[in-house]
Amino acid sequence: MTRKKIIIRILQILIVLFGISFFTFLLTYLAPGDPAQIMLTSSGVMPTEETVNALRESMGYNDPFIVQYFRWLGNALHGDLGVSFTLNKPVTDLLLERLWPTLKLTLFSVVLMLAVSVPLGMLSAVKENTWVDNLVRGISFIGVSMPNFWIGLLLMLLFCVKLRIFPVISSAGDFKSMILPAVTLAIAMSAKYTRQVRTAILEELHQDYVIGARARGIPERKILWGNVFKNSLLPLITMLGLSIGSLLGGTAVVEVIFSYPGLGSLAVAAITANDYNLIQGYVLWVALIYMVINLIVDISYNFIDPRMRLAR
Amino acid sequence: MAMLEVNNITVSYGNDPAVRNFSMTLEEGKICSLVGESGSGKTTVIRAIFGLLPGGGKVTAGDIYFEGNHLLTYDKKQWRKIRGTEMSMIFQDTGAMMNPTRKVGAAYAEYIRTHEKISGAEAARKGIAMLERMRLPSGDNVMQSYPFQLSGGMRQRVGIAMGMTYQPKLLLADEPTSALDVTTQAQIVRQMMELKENYGTSIILVTHNLGIAAYMADHIIVMKDGVIEDQGDRNHILYHSENAYTHKLLDAVPSIGGTRYV
Amino acid sequence: MGMKKHNFFMTHKVFCIFGILAILLILMAVFAPVVTGGVDPTTGNLRDALLPPGPEHIFGTDKMGRDIFARVIYGARVSLVAAFSVVGISFGIGSLLGVISGYFRGAVDAVIMRLADMMLSFPGLVLAMAVAGILGAAIHNAVLAVAVVTWPKYARLARSLVLKIRDRDYVAAAVTTGSKHGYMLVRYMLPNALPTLIITAATDIGSLMLELAALSFLGFGAVPPTPEWGLMLSEGRAYMQSAPWLMIFPGLAILVTVIIFNMLGDGLRDILDPRQEG
Q1: Mind telling me how many Å the CA of A215 is from chain B's nearest CA?
Q2: Which of B23, C40, C132, C268 is the most buried (most CB within 10 A)?
Q3: CATH code, domain carrying B35
């Protein structure tokens, strides 16, 4: 990707961020519920008409929508995303303190997922249409059809309640508390990813150059690892990127089940409590991360497929 | 026993016989051509000889002997030993038969190092030497290029170079010139004739062009719908055949200036 | 005539088997009162709370004494209607916008695609959560939220299919003979784009059902006392230790339903477009 293209992409990202934040702001503006009232009740003050009005004035909630939005935008560009009124802390701080646990969980889950789905997917592809292939496909299919929160609940039932290996509440954020959430996420993702690995590898295996290599007497193992695998990396990395982007936004459901202190459970709490500032901040964060990762993935294509590099 | 003996084979995909009752023999240093339209089974035959039938294809009757060895009993290991060394195949588009994301040099070196325990640099040298023998003077350049960067003629030369690296006894050529323009076709054809002269290689040439077959081959087999329709040497096919289909094919050969390219 | 039917079944076993199962599922939901023997899923006797599965209540009872079997069966109604609604809305609006976008190009195309891109630059559940959460917890809000997040996929797909056809010669021919836009859209664009779109819709039913269940689980979808499977899982969570059956049966229900519809979608794909690989 040329520098020019990268700059265009960054501009596109900014535009989209603008659009999304506008859209979310609009939604929160139109939503029922008075932010001033919510602020007062959550800080334990009884909202009377005067206090509510006074607060509204001071917070600028009586200003027209556009003014409010640009005020928020201006602040956001300075890194000030406002204050969460249910948790009484700056939004930026809240996002940051949940970032590290989320990163850890993401990393762990992805490593687990890759360790399972890449070998299984390759095995399935190489042994196409044998019982091994069918078994792997069958298990993947069921895995994809299961709600991932059910998997989490079942794991919790088994390991926390019945076997008492792990604690039910894992708010400590340490390694032990990460295992079950990571495994839950890994199971759900592996089911999906194994199929994709299989498809990508099969597509390569059916290419003519594989026949050519066989015609030259090259052993299957070399064909698979030296040629096929490398060529199928492209689509796989794209999907990996999407998955990571998704995970970094926080996996609400799993975090809620295991009470894991990540970005996802923060989002759920924020939305449930109508904490608009926090919601805005969170949405912005997720969109940013998602698009940045997509950009990184696109840039990495350059180094993987020479055809892209040379076809200027 | 002749170098290659194919005895009455039937090749089927599932329950569908694509080729029936096909037989041929080939002596050393001879060229045989299988001629026919698409779907006649000619490609199926050489793929069967090479053990490279695509998904589901099997030789369901007859046998194939190469240098006295019963090829149909060969396992993967035995095939790996003779493919690329004793028996080679070149295809219609060599470029398509190479990994598009790797340079020609990488693919060539990988091939050489599969059959010989030498270093990467030595393998590259061997490859370049072979390319130059095949009339590709800037061998180093070719090795550093990707398949899509080379012209059709150059790619076919690369294919022939790779196929001939170990001076195989038998070269199977599947429509090696069909994707080329007429001038380049002539060059490649001439180059293949030289192989026979310089190395004594036997060639089975698959083509739909009876003109090229007549030019190159000692023996021609005309195929239609999976069976042998007609066969004989050049003279017979061109001038003495009674077969209606052979006549059809002869009429289809393009002629330049009124004279057929023979 | 019988021979033809027999052949259709044999070559499309998957589609037929799971088609029948899907229909059975739908019938079961429609005739829920019959299947459950008249038991009311929304009321229960507190004295019968948290009973394990037994002859009276084959799936046990929940914390309010409600029969879980009845709730699971009635839950099918909610899940099926919601899932089909989402698919219907996304498919309908998305495809329409996509076809318009691809056919007319220009400013219309740019606007619609920017809008779609905006929605797609987000993991679906997050935005759906935000929309559903802000609009308030209700099943129809969850349906709306998921539809808002899903239509871009259909729009993109429809647009690319239209673009492919648009450039073909017979379309140019029709234009020169003065065919009107509406005619062009219906006669040429739609029939070519429909099969792929329908396959996508069918295979989506399963995953959209999962998303809806997730929203309800988090509290952004169905509200009590509605028997909805995701909600039931959330309710059952607190009683994991003492009454695990609260959690197991609704989960199983989701699993079975999604499997049936996923297989149905795959089977449909095999019929309409055998070239594509799973």
Answers
A1: 6
A2: C132
A3: 3.40.50.300
